[in-house]
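Q: Could you write out the predicted structure for this multi-component system? I'm mainly interested in how the pieces pack against one another.
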Amino acid sequence: MTIKIWKFFQREQLFECYQCARCTGSCPAMEVAPALGPRETILICLNQGHDRVVEDEKLWLCCTCNVCEDRCPQEIPICDLLVALRNSAARRGNIPIRLGMAIELLAKTGRSMIVHQLDEMRAHHGLAPLPPAPVDEVRDILKKTGLDEVIEI
Amino acid sequence: MKYALYLGCAIPIKYPGFEAATRLVCERLNVELVDLPFSCCPPPTSMKLVHYDSWLALAARNLCLAEEQGLDLLTLCSGCVNTLKEANHILKNSDSKRRRVNKFLEGHNHRFKGTIEVTHILDVLYQDTVVEKLLHEKVRDIPLRVGCHYGCHYFRPPKVMYPGELSDAESHVPVKMDHLLSIIGVEPTEYSRKFLCCGSPLGANMDQDAGYSITRQKLEYIHERNIQALSVVCPSCFEQFDMGQIVLARKTKEKRRIPTFYLTQLVGLALGLSPKDVGLDVHRIKPKKLLSGIDVA
Ligand code: SF4
Ligand code: SF4
């Protein structure tokens, strides 16, 4: 199943972009990795269609730091666009392995983290054991929201 | 003053010392905390990117638990506060999204109504009454040159995280941690790229080396200002600096190491708690020498 990207982000807003690259110039991910960056992401959406971006693994090279949006002189809600594009990518199987594993863990345990000997560690700091997470309720909600469109749960 | 304490995942599981410090500090400053059966927030760096409806529904469930007790929700992490504040904002303002999410939750007797606010430990400690109490209870100063790192998700996007508090400046940047720490004798020290990412989400999702490259750049600017320690309000940022310096040193052979503190650990020390009480003994980069230099043991 696909999602409607333009429900998350008004397509017309793509045309507001100056291609000034202030976003990309501020982007920490661009500095250290071969990321697309917001400017190019928008340009590809305009010239070749968003499918091209959605298929590209580089779409995921991002810190979600929101600096790009903060600095855009046109006040384009860039992060809404990036969230929508990635939601779409995940449905087509374009999802980083580590991220997929993190989502699986969350669906299985209700939490995003797991360690051995947790009770001992907490006792070391004078804390009671952590009550179990409401796993059944979480899984049931995630079934209803349709997470299995993306990841088997 | 009473809040539903939202612990999140990383703090109670990976860094329970931060939880211990926070509980002790809140008790001393008359901030009452109530524990509820929350789940993962879930993070703006994972679930939101992968499946928006799941992100919104789980966040709504957490908000409902606090609503049902009539309590505002207190978070300890930049990621948690981002998700829960944004979800609260979205659901309060959109009838259609609220209806949609309430359908997902109705089988479990939750219904989002929009009756509470979401806050963060930094904002709670910064309130006038708490600051007065802190001034009264403080037993020692912590005279260190500290660089504050807030974590992007704590304050961006400003229109959601701090509506109405936007300055005229183009980018809104927070000041509360710097101000709060100066009350306990800390010398808050500016550095370049202070408000940029620590590198954590890029490392967690995609490329650990690339994530640490961002950390390394930040650390260079931090060293430039002779900063002695870092203060953070997010467990992911903490790990990026604490563990990150160990990992980076394997390659760079960098000898300088800067200890990182979670905010309530520094406040706890000023209140007379011991380094062990606030959980400093398990940090990868030990602050022991630094603290004995200012007679804190
Ligand atoms: S900063 Fe805004 S206007 Fe400039 S290139 Fe980026 S998205 Fe376009
Ligand atoms: S949110 Fe992503 S694209 Fe935007 S500046 Fe940060 S790392 Fe770059």
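A: Regarding packing and overall arrangement: Chain A has two domains: 5-91, 97-149.
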